[in-house]
Structure formats: C-alpha cells, structure tokens
Specification:
The chain is of the alpha+beta class and 450 residues long. The protein has 17 helices and twelve strands.
Length: 450
C-alpha cells in the first residue's frame, strides 16, 4: 500500500542577496522593511541576515507559543546581544536558565506592588523639583528632560541614593553614543570586535566606561553606608549563593547596569512619545487637562491612579504606537516548528510589537492616536500577545508595574502645570536601536498653565 509523505514548505520571504542576505534592507529601515514583509508575505516570513537564518512571526497566537507556551525551546537571540555584551554583560536582561531565574527571584521583591506607594511619592517629588527650572516661553528638548528625570528617579527608588545633574548629563551623553554605535552595528554584515579601535568602538567603549564609573560609585556608596536597607542594591549586596558565596563583582555590576539603563530608558521614551502625541492632538490634550482638574491644583499621588483613567489611556496608546521594545528576538535552541513551518536550531525569530500594535486585525484605525480606545475594556478583548509593550511570557519585564505607575504619575505631574507645544517645523522620526527613540529629540515650547 502506498504511503503519503507530507512535504513541509518553508514560508515565503524576500529574496536574499549574495552573502549579505536581507541585511541591507533590514539595517537601512528595520521598521519599514519588517512592515513590508508582513504585508507582502503574511504572518510567517523567511529572512536571512548575513549568514543568520531568521523568521518573522506576526500573529498573536504564534507569538504566544514562542514567548509563553514553548518558551524553553527559545532563548534570547544572539544576533542582537552579541552587539551589547560590553554594556549589559550577563545581567537580568541577557542571562539565561538558572542564573536568570535566580537573579529574577532576587530582584522581584523590589518591584512588589506594596513597594510602589513609597516609590510613587519619590517619582512625583522628583518631577516637581525637576520642573522648577522650566520657564514660561522657553524651548526644551523634552526627550532629554525625561531621560534626566527618570534616571534621577530610578537611582533614588531602586538604589537609595541621589546623583547630581552633572553625572546624569554624562550618563545621558554616554548612552547616546552607545545607542548610535549599536544602530550602526545592526547594519553591518559582519561583527567588528569591541577591541578593534574604530572611531565607533572608541566612542562605545568610552561610553561603557562612564556607565561603569556610575555603577561602581553606586555600589561603593551603598557598601560604605551598610547594606541593611531594603532598596534593590542592598538586596543584591546581601544575596548569597547556595554555597554561601556572595555575588561576584562582575555579576553585581551587570545587574546594576541593566537595572539603571532599563529602569529609566523605557519610561523616558514612553513619556517623550506621550508628550509628542498629545501636542499633535489638541483634543486629546484637552481631555487630559480636564481629567487633571480632579487634582485641584495639587501634585498627583498613588491614590489618584484609579481616577486617572484617561492619563493611563494616553500612556497605553503611546506604548501601542511607539513601543520602546519594537522588536523582540528569540533563537531556536533545537529543530522545531512554528505555525506548521520548520524552524532549524539557531534560527532567529523576530516578534515585533511595532507590527502587532499597528495591525488592523486587532486595532481599529491602528495608525491613529485614540487614547479612548482603552477606556471600554479593550485590553480584555485583545488576543494574548497582540499588545506586548513589555514583552510576554515568563520573561515579561520585571519593572512593568513600576514603569506604568511612573509614566502616569509623571505625565500627570507635568501636564497639570504645563502645556507643551511641539515646534511646528519639527518632523519627528523614530530611531530604532536598542530601543525606539525619537531621532532628533522632542523640542517643545513651555507654557505655564494658570
């Protein structure tokens, strides 16, 4: 009796070029390229980046399979993290397996909801102090302002100390140089080791050294003051392995760098894009102002969060249109299938919140800024993993509640006092690197609200 053989066909995709594959298009405009691939080839698209096989996955149920249901078959992808080893090392963002699980369990208490009440007051107080320097009628880069503010907040809340404006400016400039270099690395068909003294590598290494200097300062100050506090840094310093040994200096450094950078970058970007979108949509901004009247002229507090529903909706809509983590990568650890197509071991899988959040199958008028879409239970109706600004599955961002609380409170604290107007000549473009930044800052005119 004849037997039938099932032939598994790889999904379609753009034709790769000799040697470099699809890397030129990927590096030149990653957001446009991935969007074009999804429109032309569907929810599963075969790619090749240099010698790296890749698969774009653009359907919520398949994304959920990768991030949650079968997450053990996939690890953080080396295509991206090979470029940032000098920054993040083997911290919570990049580590795998038992080390990642141990570090996450160790850091989790610092992000418990009961801790947010104490953090919230620090967030608002820092915002009030930061805005004291703003003057009616002046122009400021609100992206720069939010980066500085959120760095002050994360250092104070998670590490129990303060840093001066000069240090914040140095860290900001260092991270800007690092981000620029990472974006260039994504466009190369080959890797240039960090030790090669190219101009980009020299700027990159100088930036990493400055970040290290801040981290070592934070660690040194906490050790001098004693590690008996309940802030995250104290927890890390007291932590011991099962054999009684403390965390190594390198591991401690990696965790602190990860939490400092990830702990302020995402929230700063959320606020930057929120302020930009509000300036482009006066009706939405007026709705926000009307809601903030409930504060009766005082700064917001954590008790106000349940009533700041429109402010929260603005934050969610900003995260939908401009998710800081615009692409999530995973690497298949073994031969497997996704959506019925073969995925050889070593294949990089790209899961893009940027695409999912702008898909008309899940969001009506997906290109429009509509905060009100979040006020009628949309979150409960969406398919799982159709909206994932903080990732999904076991590796969902540990600071999700922290970041959302901070974004809502800071946006309310700023907007109750100021009306911010975008420069009319500014054309704001997203700049995809480690995160999704505004390419040329967010220059706005400050107007005090009276």
């Amino acid at each position: 009796m004849a037997t039938s053989t099932t032939v598994v066909v790889s999904p379609p995709g753009p034709a790769p070029r000799f040697l470099v594959g699809n890397l030129p298009e990927f590096g030149r405009d990653i957001l446009g390229f991935l969007g074009d691939c999804a429109r032309r080839y569907g929810d599963l698209v075969s790619l090749r980046l240099g010698s790296w096989p890749a698969l774009l996955v653009n359907r919520p149920d398949l994304v959920e399979q990768v991030l949650a249901v079968r997450y053990r078959q996939f690890r953080k992808h080396s295509f991206f993290f090979r470029h940032v080893t000098a920054i993040f090392g083997n911290g919570l963002l990049t580590s795998e397996g038992e080390l990642w699980l141990r570090q996450r369990r160790l850091a989790q208490p610092a992000f418990h909801r009961e801790r947010l009440a104490g953090y919230a007051k620090t967030m608002v107080d820092a915002t009030e102090r930061h805005c004291q320097a703003w003057r009616d009628g002046e122009r400021r880069d609100l992206h720069h302002e939010m980066m500085a503010l959120t760095l002050h907040i994360v250092v104070r809340t998670l590490f129990g100390t303060d840093v001066g404006d000069r240090v914040v400016a140095q860290v900001g400039a260092s991270f800007d140089a690092i981000v620029e270099e990472i974006a260039r690395r994504f466009r190369r068909p080959f890797r240039i080791p960090d030790a090669v003294p190219t101009p980009g590598n020299l700027r990159y290494r100088r930036g990493v050294r400055r970040l290290d200097a801040l981290v070592h300062r934070l660690i040194g100050e906490r050790r001098e003051a004693g590690d008996e506090g309940e802030d995250l840094l104290s927890l890390l310093l007291r932590a011991r392995d099962e054999d009684g040994t403390r965390m190594s200096e390198r591991q401690l450094r990696d965790e602190v760098v990860t939490l400092v950078l990830a702990g302020h970058e995402t929230t700063a970007l959320t606020l930057s894009w929120s302020l930009y979108l509000l300036s482009r949509h006066p009706a939405a901004r007026q709705c926000l102002f009307e809601e903030l009247e409930l504060l009766a002229g005082r700064p917001p507090s954590i008790d106000d969060l349940p009533r700041l529903r429109y402010t929260d909706a603005v934050v969610h809509e900003s995260l939908r249109l401009y998710p800081p983590a615009y692409v999530i990568g995973r690497e298949a650890q073994e031969d497997c299938q996704v959506g019925g197509v073969p995925v050889p071991a070593g294949t990089t899988l790209f899961l893009s919140p940027w695409l999912l959040h702008r898909d008309p199958r899940w969001f009506e008028a997906p290109g429009e800024f509509r905060p009100e879409r979040w006020l009628d239970g949309l979150s409960a109706r969406l398919p799982r993993c159709a909206y994932l600004p903080f990732g999904g599955g076991p590796r969902v961002c540990i600071g999700q509640s922290f970041a959302l609380t901070e974004a809502v409170l800071v946006l309310a604290a700023v907007s109750r006092r100021f009306s911010l107007t975008l420069d009319p000549d500014l054309v704001l473009e997203p700049f995809p690197s480690i995160t999704l930044r505004p390419r040329s800052g967010v220059w706005m005119r400050i107007a005090e609200r009276r």
